[in-house]
Amino acid sequence: MSRLKTGCIIATVVAVILVVALVWGAWALTGHGSIVYRGIGWLCADSQSYRPAADWYGKAVRAQPRDADLRVELARVLVLDGRPDEALKQYEEAARLDPKRPESLLGIVRLRTKAGDLAQAQQALDAAMKLSPNQAEAQLALGRLRAAQGKLPEAVAALQQAVAANASLTEAYAELGQALEKQKKTDEAIKAYESGALGGDQACRSRLIALGRTPPTSSTTTSTTTVSSSGSTSTRSSTSSSGQPPAAFFGFMGVFWVAYFLFIGLAILLAMASRVVSLLAIYDCARRDFDDPGTRALWCVLIALLRWIGALVYYLVVYRKDHPPIQPKRSYTSPPPPMT
C-alpha cells in the first residue's frame, strides 16, 4: 500500500502542476487576456457598437497597461463614442509610453485643435512632424491646425499635400473644401467635395447637397464611420458593390476558424490517446501479481480517473521496475476421470 500511496501523491502533484502550467501558459500567450479583449473590441467597433468596443479595449489596456498600440486603438474608439476627453488621456499616455509613435501625437493634435488649445496642439504637431513630416495624416493635422489659426493658404497647401499622399483619406477632401470655401473658391471646393464623395465621405456629400449640387455616385453601397490613426473621424465605405465585408474581416475569420478546428482536432486526438494509454495501463495492472487485490483495484481506479497522468505514474512506479511481476500463465489440465 505504501507504493500505491506514493504513486497517488506523485500523480496528484503532476496533475496539479500540469493544469497550472497549461492555464498560465494559455493566459500568458494571450497577453493576460488582452488579445481576446482586443479581438472582441475590434468586432464591436466594426459593427459600430462603440460603447461596448471601448469597454473591451479598456479591459485589454488594463491587462497590458504599457502597450501604446492598445491605448491608441482605445482612443480611436472613444472618439467615435463621443468621449474626446477620455480619448485625449489615452493618446497622451500612449505618447508618454512611446514618444516616437506619430499616431498618438497626431491624435493629440486633432483633439487639441478641436478643443481650441492651439498652443498645445502646435507642440504635439511639431513633435509629430519631426517623426514623419510627409505622412498624409501629419499633413492633414497640419492643415486643420492652420485652418483653426486662420492661416488658410498654408492650410490649403497642407491639405492638398495630404490628398496627394493618400487619395483614400477622404476626410482631407472635406477639410480642403471647407478651407477653399473660406477663401471664396467655391468651384475648387466643389471639386474637392466631389472627390471625397466618390470615396464615400458623407460630410462631402452633405456639403454638396447644401451647395445645390448632386453628389456623384460611388462604387460602394454601404458606408460606416471610421477613425484614422490621428483620431479623426471620417465616413468611408466598408463594403464593396457586391456587399462583401472588408478583406481584413475574411482574414480574421479565416485565422479564427483554422485555429478553432486545429484546436478541436488536437483535443480529440489527445483524448483518444489518453484513453488508449489508460486502457493499456489498466490491462497491464490486471496482469500484475500484487500481494493485495485491493492494491490492484486502487491502481486501476487511479489510472481510470487521471487517464494518461495516472498511466505515466503507473509506468514510473510499477511497469518500468517490473515489480510486482506479471502473473505467470496458468496451465489448465483436464481433471482426472472419476473413480468408478
Walk me through this protein's architecture.
The protein has a two-stranded antiparallel ribbon with strand order 1-2. It has three domains: 2-11 and 253-319, no CATH class; 33-99, Serine Threonine Protein Phosphatase 5, Tetratricopeptide repeat, CATH 1.25.40; 100-242, Tetratricopeptide repeat domain (Serine Threonine Protein Phosphatase 5, Tetratricopeptide repeat, Alpha Horseshoe). The chain has helices spanning 2-29, 34-46, 50-63, 68-80, 84-97, 102-115, 118-131, 136-148, 152-165, 170-182, 186-198, 202-210, 247-286, 293-306, 308-319; strands at residues 222-227, 233-239. It starts with a helix and ends in a 21-residue tail after the last helix. 70% of the residues lie in helices and 4% in strands. With 340 residues, the protein is mainly alpha-helical. It is built from 15 helices and two strands. Mean pLDDT is 80; it is low at 220-227 and 229-247. Strand 1 (222-227) and strand 2 form a beta hairpin.
